[in-house]
Specification:
Number of helices: 14
Bound molecules: pyridoxal-5'-phosphate
Structural class: alpha/beta
Order of helices and strands: HEEEHHHEHEHEHEHEHEEHHHEEHEEEH
Strand content: 5-15%
Number of strands: 15
Length: 424
């Protein structure tokens, strides 16, 4: 029973005003600097600017760099910043302090984790991944096996075949399982706990990519007994364009892993300038070169937003926002040939909703012109990310209205909207 305003009168959740009024995360929106009159559904690609970042950056630039110069490495603790920021990320992905470092890009961290994992299983050849994985993860894994020049090779199966492969007859050749937890196109979420356990039963180690998980869904690396993890910080963690990524190594491996990239910042004593490489104890060995302090400072400030946030609240609101979107799109746009590409069951997906549409790219461009930002992934996927720290229920209603208008009026059907930009 719906009335013309879309509310039932008895169902508080259906009424966006009531849902926003009862939202335990509502106050966090003020922590972000968001352009007015814009609904931002692309925080899964690039999170918005947290308000504290500009002040912190200007302090680090003018006071720390400008005044302390080289003394800043000691006086302002720059040398430990990758590990300090790593500890803050660890808290968001169920990892202990001292197990995560904020460093390099996710791509580079995939290479480091895959090579370290392969060296833990020198008698095995297979790097197992799935076809839902993000291309850079597969490219880097392929590059690593090429560079190692042994008989290691990459094997890619369909996402729903991973478990079978791990329990199949040839499982003893699998050195490591490399998976992205939440699929960047569809939002489909793997069962990290079950697949890690299956990999371990096969004698393999795991490398999880948390690019679309960190800050998006509850993750518990420790209780899953994950071996390695990597992830981005410019998506749901709002660290800014190109902010440093992170890498996790389980404490049981951290003293023994042999990183492919043996740089001086991963050395036991970088300022001893010894002629031979000796890895640092623990997670520091996953560092390579000098850390980008300005970018790390921005990320550090961005992470302040998470201080008092409970990931269970984030998950509950993310699910409610996405459900509001899916049911709204079903009701308003159902006849326009949109095909839901995400699992319909909220427990099977991360914090995004995707639809397939043959003119998906143009539809997204038209939607952006209406003040609702989503993005597009080849060949036909329209993606909408739901970030509970700053999105309101009524923003979702606005987005559904805009999508309905774009489709009803065929506003996407112009030549301009069909020309792909460099970044989609
Ligand atoms: C976004 C994303 C990346 C990006 O890697 P960069 O090295 O930061 O460019 C890698 N893997 C996955 C799964 C991603 O979603």
């Amino acid at each position: 029973m719906t009335d013309p305003t879309g509310t039932t009168g008895t169902d508080v959740e259906a009424d966006p005003v009531a849902a926003d009024a009862g939202d335990p995360l509502a106050a966090l929106r003020d922590r972000f600097s968001l352009p007015p009159d814009l609904v931002y559904l692309d925080g899964n690609s690039l999170g918005p600017l947290p308000r504290g970042v500009a002040t912190r950056l200007s302090q680090v630039v003018t006071r720390e760099w400008g005044t302390s110069l080289i003394r800043g490495w000691n006086d302002h603790g720059w040398i430990d910043l990758p590990v300090r920021v790593g500890d803050r990320i660890a808290a968001l992905v169920g990892a202990a302090p001292g197990t995560v470092v904020a460093v390099d890009s996710t791509s580079v961290n995939v290479a480091k984790a895959v090579s370290a994992a392969l060296r833990l299983r020198p008698d095995r050849q297979v790097v197992l991944s799935d076809s839902g994985n993000f291309p850079t993860d597969l490219y880097m894994a392929q590059g690593v096996v090429n560079a190692l020049a042994g008989d290691a090779h990459l094997e890619v199966v369909a996402p729903d075949e991973v478990e079978g492969r791990l329990s199949g007859p040839d499982a003893s050749s699998i050195a490591l399982l490399l998976l992205t937890h939440v699929d960047y196109r569809t939002g489909r979420m793997h069962d990290m706990s079950a697949l890690t356990a299956a990999a371990h039963r096969a004698g393999a180690v795991t490398v999880w990519d948390l690019a679309h998980s960190a800050g998006a869904v509850p993750v518990d690396l420790e209780s899953c007994r994950a071996d390695f993890a990597v992830g981005c910080t410019y998506k749901y963690l709002n660290g800014g364009p190109g902010s440093p990524a992170f890498v996790y190594v389980a404490p049981r491996h951290a003293q023994v892993v042999d990183p492919l990239l043996s740089g001086w910042m991963g050395h036991h004593a970088p300022f001893a300038f010894e002629p031979a490489y000796r890895p640092a104890p623990g997670i520091r060995r996953m560092q390579v070169g000098t850390a980008p302090i300005l970018a790390l400072a921005a990320l550090d400030a961005a992470l302040d937003v998470w201080e008092a946030v409970d990931m269970a609240d984030v998950r509950a609101k993310s699910t409610a926002l996405a459900e509001r979107f899916v049911t709204g799109v079903e009701r308003r746009c159902g006849h326009h040939g949109l095909e839901l590409a995400s699992p319909r069951d909220p427990s099977q997906r991360g914090s995004q909703i995707s639809y397939r549409h043959p003119e998906g790219y143009a539809v997204i461009q038209a939607l952006i012109a209406e003040g609702v930002i989503g993005d597009f992934r080849e060949p036909d996927i329209m993606r909408f990310g739901f970030c509970p720290l700053y999105l309101r229920h009524h923003d979702v209603e606005t987005a559904v209205d805009a999508l309905a208008t774009v489709l009803d009026d065929r506003r996407w059907d112009t030549a301009d909207y069909k020309v792909r930009a460099a970044v989609t």
